[in-house]
């Protein structure tokens, strides 16, 4: 009934501690470092502990998606880790979750969905797979399915921060700002410093309700820096406070450089600077910025969606033959 992955109690304990920390606040760099230390300890004790390799994969995944490491090199390392896990233990759901995540980064949409469904076939209640496929559904604009999978994850664990975030994301994307606020408030009562909740809710008030001051209040409190700065750069522009908008863009440039190319595209699109937005989005594709996977569903890019250059990029997103 239980998939046995290690017989080393100390290795398993280190993994459990790492998982507890990481699930609660995946964006925090200090948490990532502490988790890596625990995972390294687990792998020293048992190098064949596949779940520990998944823990290593998960930390690297967030470092890559946050631009802390080179996007292309990170993607290559993630592919190697996912392949390693499949070869070590193809019966472990997390091996297929890792494969699905890499396929998502590579924008191989059918392969990603198939990998997550395979993980769920192995274990229909696997919370990692439920959360992963929920996120994939939102990328594909299948928000009803995204919410359904997030709710299934919450049924399994009502305190799972990832499932709470996925639920918040779907509500925010569909303009249900009050519902998004309620879910985010529940999550932040559990983990006050958790990233992305305030940013996601802020984007809802910004994009769907036009309440720019409320959005700024949320962005000010968002611990994920690129989300905070991007949101404020857009919201201040909407309030005709361009000096403050530019200040936040300048800070984003200084902090991240071209690693924030996708965020530059969002900002310039909302500022009405179409050519700059398209230049930044093309650069995001060139460096394989992980934000690029969002272009199908990102309302911040709506002002440039009818441009031929954007349509060409959307074809890249849709069709591997165009890449």
Estimated share of beta-strand residues: under 5%
Shape: globular
* Computed CA radius of gyration, to the nearest angstrom: 19 Å
Give the CA-CA distance, first to last residue. Answer: 43 Å
Task: Give a brief outline of the structure.
With 323 residues, the chain is mainly α.
Question: Which key terms come to mind for this protein?
Answer:
single chain; 323 residues; mainly alpha; 17 helices; 73% helix; globular
SSE order and pairing:
Blueprint lengths: L8 H16 L4 H17 L4 H16 L5 H18 L4 H13 L3 H14 L4 H13 L3 H14 L4 H13 L3 H14 L6 H13 L2 H10 L3 H14 L3 H15 L4 H11 L2 H13 L21 H11 L5
Helix pairs in contact: 1-2, 1-3, 2-3, 3-4, 4-5, 5-6, 5-7, 6-7, 7-8, 7-9, 8-9, 9-10, 9-11, 10-11, 11-12, 11-13, 12-13, 13-14, 13-15, 15-16
3D structure, described in words:
There is one protein chain. It is built from 17 helices and no strands. It starts with 8 loop residues before the first helix and ends in a 5-residue tail after the last helix. It is globular and about 60 Å long. It is an all-alpha fold and 323 residues long. 73% of the residues lie in helices and 0% in strands.
